[in-house]
Design brief:
By secondary structure, the chain is an alpha+beta fold. The protein is about 40% helix and about 25% strand. Helix 5 packs across helix 7 and helix 6 crosses helix 7. The longest helix has 21 residues. The radius of gyration is 19 Å and the shape is elongated.
Length: about 220
């Protein structure tokens, strides 16, 4: 007899509509036991520090946040994501540093108030399960990307970033200026010399359009 997992009894439609990040944000803002506040957080400020505990949960309303373990960046998130959920339940030390890359609009919640709200819900555990899974998936995705070699790795990682953060300008999809060459080198696990050489190759095959002012990574949509 096949054993069902904890989520197998819930339909994908039910999970998407009732247990999304947006529905959790709506519930937290409307909960009487939760006192959230909203703030514009400056560029370069860390929300969560590796090896330290945090008393807060964050929600990115607008902005870009990087995730780094040690000296290595393994993920970026934008609007619509929580930061700090993985350590919420047990108040463990964080396994990463989450840092603001550009001025960001952030909701800030008290950890204990969030836990009180979630424990008051009959199926609050589903939010814990899904958000912790989402955090694990980010790390697994990065490991998958770095299994590619050379120019293929840079291409697939640029396309993934473009899907989340890119804006269309004519025939190009442009990444925000916070995605610098050195930051991309760290994320893709290439040296600065190697990524410089790979970027030249991507220009040569017209995957990348010529840089303009602060727009370093301009991906040709026709490619």
């Amino acid at each position: 007899m096949m054993r069902l997992g904890p989520m197998d009894i819930y339909s994908e439609h039910l999970i998407k509509n009732n247990f999304s990040k947006k529905s959790l944000l709506t519930g937290l803002i409307g909960a009487s036991e939760v006192n959230e506040y909203r703030s514009m957080v400056k560029r370069n400020q860390a929300l969560v520090h590796e090896d330290l505990r945090t008393d807060h949960l964050y929600y990115v309303k607008k902005g870009i946040v990087s995730f780094k373990q040690g000296s290595h960046t393994f993920a970026f998130i934008g609007a619509g994501h929580f930061v700090g959920f993985e350590t919420l339940l047990m108040n463990n030390r964080s396994r990463y540093t989450a840092r603001i890359l550009e001025a960001s609009d952030i909701y800030i919640f008290d950890r204990l108030e969030v836990m009180e709200y979630l424990f008051s819900l009959q199926e609050g555990w589903i939010f814990f399960y899904l958000l912790e899974k989402s955090a694990r998936d980010k790390l697994l995705q990065h490991q998958h990307f770095t299994s590619f070699k050379g120019i293929d790795r840079l291409e697939v990682m640029l396309l993934d970033l473009a899907k989340t953060f890119g804006t269309t300008q004519g025939n190009n999809i442009v990444l925000p200026k916070c995605f610098t060459k050195s930051r991309l080198a760290n994320y893709t696990n290439f040296s600065l010399n190697t990524i410089t050489s790979l970027i030249k190759e991507l220009h040569h095959i017209e995957f990348l359009a010529p840089a303009e002012e602060d727009m370093l990574f301009r991906i040709n949509k026709k490619k």
